[in-house]
């Protein structure tokens, strides 16, 4: 659990982060989203103390982080970054073992940890002896996530984690990550420029502009109940695509019985309409066309339902 209370930072009397407050519980993903220069990276760097805040408090597991040395603080945090940052001359096993070794774990404990993390990330144990360049970009990113988790941190910071991947791998990894969230069970703060990624991955989105929170809430809250003009306009360009990512099969179930549809077995009720559209075989396409029609027929009612539930 991390709690950020009223943090501020100015450069030459110009505030770049103003009175920022939020909390993230274990198992929850908070996305920091906003235009370039809105203060996302500064916020992340304040949390890991690469930048000193001017005022405010940050608590990790109820501990005031000002009372920790930067070394103690960073042991509580795992990082996943865009460029992945795996050491090229180390094997995958050595890369994942770095933090546990620094923590002085014994060999058996480290080996067990590496094995269980690889399993969690759906990577075969044969990758252990390989070097990073012998893995695909997506596999390397999964190793990056495994490495961030290795020392058992309380908090994971992810800075544009899927930014360097091609669109297909990126989408696949986002989907996998979504499924992994429960198993990871850490407080996760993720910075992204990508509005769709924020909608897909965020349990909550913190939308920033000029260092100030414009709105913080679930993707549906931001989309269907924008707090101000900025929020509304920020999402307006991709409105339809975002809606299809935010609305789930479950949301439609008040209007139709999904049993009549021949949906693929692996599709969960929490699947968004956008996920449904990714199944492209002809029979499924016809089904989804009907689903979409139902959605658009009931769109106004659904949206007012979302607004009421906010
Ligand atoms: N060392 C610095 N000195 C002065 N101004 C700075 C410094 N570092 C950042 N800034 C300013 O602070 C503001 C916030 O920057 P920050 O990097 O946090 O934005 P961001 O939302 O992460 O942007 P991007 O999406 O482009 O990475 C920007 O206006 C930037 O120019």
Automatic annotation (TrEMBL):
Residues 2-235 form the ABC transporter domain. Keywords: ATP-binding, Nucleotide-binding, Transport. GO terms for molecular function: ATP binding. It comes from the Bacteria. InterPro entries: AAA+_ATPase (IPR003593), ABC_transporter-like_ATP-bd (IPR003439), ABC_transporter-like_CS (IPR017871), P-loop_NTPase (IPR027417). Belongs to the ABC transporter superfamily. This is ABC transporter ATP-binding protein.
């Amino acid at each position: 659990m991390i709690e950020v209370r009223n943090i501020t930072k100015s450069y030459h009397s110009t505030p770049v982060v103003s009175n920022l407050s939020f909390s993230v519980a274990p198992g929850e993903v908070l996305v920091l989203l906003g235009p370039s220069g809105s203060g996302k990276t500064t916020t992340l760097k304040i949390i890991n103390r690469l930048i000193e805040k001017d005022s405010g408090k940050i608590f990790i597991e109820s501990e005031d982080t000002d009372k920790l040395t930067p070394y103690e603080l960073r042991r509580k945090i795992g990082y996943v970054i865009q460029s992945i940052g795996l050491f090229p001359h180390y094997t995958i096993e050595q890369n994942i073992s770095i933090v546990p070794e620094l923590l002085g774990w014994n060999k058996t404990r480290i080996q067990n940890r590496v094995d269980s993390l690889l399993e969690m990330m759906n990577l075969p144990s044969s990758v252990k002896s390989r070097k990073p360049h012998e893995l695909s970009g997506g596999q390397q990113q999964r190793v990056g996530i495994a490495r961030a988790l290795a020392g058992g941190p309380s908090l994971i910071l992810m800075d544009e984690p899927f930014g360097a991947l091609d669109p297909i791998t990126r989408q696949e990894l986002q989907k996998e990550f979504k499924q992994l969230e429960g198993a990871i069970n850490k407080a996760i703060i993720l910075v992204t420029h990508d509005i769709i990624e924020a909608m897909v991955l965020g349990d909550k989105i913190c939308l920033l502009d000029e260092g100030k929170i414009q709105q913080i809430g679930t993707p549906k809250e931001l989309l269907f109940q924008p707090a101000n003009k900025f929020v509304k306009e920020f999402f307006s360009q991709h409105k339809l695509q975002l809606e299809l990512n935010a609305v789930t099969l479950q949301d439609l179930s008040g209007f139709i019985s999904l049993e009549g549809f021949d949906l693929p077995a692996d599709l969960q009720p929490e699947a968004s309409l956008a996920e449904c559209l990714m199944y492209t075989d002809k029979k499924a396409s016809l089904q989804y066309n009907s689903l979409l029609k139902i959605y658009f027929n009931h769109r106004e009612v659904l949206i007012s339902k979302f607004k009421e539930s906010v």
